[in-house]
Amino acid sequence: MLAMKTTLLSTAVLSGLSSLTSALPTLPTLTTCTPIISPFLLITTTTPNCGPSTTMPNVSAISVYDPAHSTTLNLRTILPGYNSLPNFTLADGTLQTISFGPFGLKPQLYNATGGTSNQPLGFQAAASPVGRLGLSMGYLLANNDDDSEGWTLCKDSYGETVITWQGTDPSCQHTYVQATNTAPY
């Protein structure tokens, strides 16, 4: 008789615990980000979450852009059909890439000029002081000590969509700039 009461009690306790645990909210599954290997590509997306670049919402590849044969290159979004994408590295807080200079001069090392409010992220073929750029959480391009929220996509005077820090033009849209080792399309 005692064994039967113990079994009934155990069954009741287990049933109660099962009901309690099924009523608890489920925790979100944590995504493990693949570590970014340098050199890397850059993309824009509407999410700060990591994942395969091919599955990111509103994803765009980024290429360097020479507006009007300027000595300063900008970063612009580029649609599928590109021949190649630039590789980037980070050194002492400075984002770097190798690109051809104005009028197709030989390839040169270009250093980011830093994220200045309401200005495109520019690159110049000149020595750069220690910069303020980095990869927050290992993949989000960040400015000013880990701030990845200020990047915007803005139309420039040529109609190109360029990466701008804290753009204020009505054409500007908030974006996240992410480092990735795979092309988005």
UniProtKB/TrEMBL annotation:
The keyword Signal applies. Residues 1-23 form the signal peptide. This is Pullulan synthetase. Keywords: Signal.
